[in-house]
Backbone:
């Protein structure tokens, strides 16, 4: 009889302890999610594109084609559309001269 009481007590107290632990963990997880979301919102609002390249606005398809596209009529048309929209065009030789690739030693 004594063993049955101890077994029942351990089951009851074990389930109560498990319930308390689960509730605390869930509450902490919710607080952590709220904290992380508030930090992400603050970072998005106070973003400085000069220090963080991730803050720069995304390019349109025409801007990307004009800046990184292969030479040809499609690139020329894209650059015209970017210029008409008021965008700035990067000069192709402004990054500096190449030393000749991997074979220039």
Residues:
């Amino acid at each position: 009889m004594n063993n049955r009481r101890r077994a029942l007590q351990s089951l009851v107290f074990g389930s109560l302890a498990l319930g308390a632990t689960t509730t605390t963990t869930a509450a902490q997880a919710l607080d952590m999610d709220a904290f992380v979301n508030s930090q992400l919102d603050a970072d998005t609002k106070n973003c400085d594109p000069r220090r963080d390249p991730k803050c720069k606005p995304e390019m349109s398809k025409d801007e990307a084609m004009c800046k990184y596209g292969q030479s040809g009529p499609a690139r020329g048309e894209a650059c015209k559309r970017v210029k008409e929209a008021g965008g700035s065009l990067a000069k192709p030789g402004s990054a500096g001269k190449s030393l000749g690739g991997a074979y220039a030693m």
User: Anything to note?
Assistant: Helices lie at 2-45, 61-68, 73-84. The chain has a mean pLDDT of 75. The chain is about 60% helix and 0% strand. The first helix runs from residue 2 to 45.
